[in-house]
Design goal:
The chain is built from 2 helices and no strands. The chain has helices spanning 3-36, 41-45. By secondary structure, it is mainly alpha-helical. Helices cover 71% and strands 0% of the residues.
């Protein structure tokens, strides 16, 4: 493998790993914020159906 290819592959791998870590942190933070707000994990996966408001 040529040095430029190796550097490119390493760069792409590190960028993707950084994206995955950032996504995991964002997901965890969202769960903690919802839990702190009093929303149960069940409500997150089973939202209440919305009702139409009449004027």
């Amino acid at each position: 493998m040529k040095p430029l290819e190796r550097i490119t592959l390493m760069t792409v791998t590190l960028v993707y790993a950084g994206y995955l870590i950032q996504h995991a942190i964002r997901t965890r933070a969202e769960r903690l914020y919802r839990l702190a707000a009093g929303e149960s994990p069940y409500e997150r996966t089973h939202p209440k159906p919305r009702t139409a408001k009449s004027s």
